[in-house]
Automatic annotation (TrEMBL):
Gene responsible for this protein: LOC100748175
InterPro entries: HAD-like_hydrolase, HAD-like_sf, HAD-SF_hydro_IA, HAD_2, HAD_sf
Signal peptide interval: none
Gene Ontology biological process terms from the UniProt entry: N-acetylneuraminate biosynthetic process
Annotated Pfam families: HAD_2
Domain of life: Eukaryota
GO MF: N-acylneuraminate-9-phosphatase activity
Name of the protein this chain belongs to: N-acylneuraminate-9-phosphatase
Cofactor field: Mg(2+)
Keywords for this protein: Hydrolase, Magnesium
Organism: Bombus impatiens
PANTHER family xref list: N-ACYLNEURAMINATE-9-PHOSPHATASE
Amino acid sequence: MLNVEIIHFPLLAEELTQEYGIPEDISVKITTTYLKLFRKCPDNVIHTLDVWRITLWSRALGEKYSYLAKKIYERWLCLRYYYLALSSDIVSMLHQLRLKYLLGLITNGPSNAQWEKIRKLSLEQYFDIILVSGDLPWEKPKREIFRKAYRFLNVKPDSCVMVGDKLETDILGGIEAGLGCTIWIPTLDKPPLLRGDPQPDFTIRHVTDLLSILNRSPDAPELEDSSSNASDGS
């Protein structure tokens, strides 16, 4: 799995240089600064998402280039969702999984920002439950957020599979919640699994490899089909 920020921020830095004549080193600094600001505070309770992000771009661009903030924000948003969009093979996999399993999505982050992502990517059609930590008193890896998901789906925790790319939230949370199986999909920039890390049951290179584990691996947990209230709780 590739971290989309690895792709679209360098592309945006190139555009700042090519289209607006901003020196290359300054363009890289601008995009890096925005990413840090965005990660530190992706949402603001006072402002709309658009206004807040334009404010962050204005800060990152500095006084000399702040007049570009709205244009750069719009371009960043376009690139962000272009690279976040589900590929056809992932959409196909989700359709296949829904024929047999209940699917859940648990995501950490501020409510407005996460629901924007969910809706722009049309994710609601694929999942039986979606939980955003910003709407709740807990976030991953707290076991309560996993418990809320499997109780809503009316399934037992040991019939659930947790699939995620973050060891410290997804995999640790799945283990501590007593889920039947955890599957890690490391991003390409993630260092190798260390002995002290939460240990997933499986590590796969791409999310579509999940099908081979659920369908053929003798070590995968026995999951009933959805007619028996089973869950693939990702």
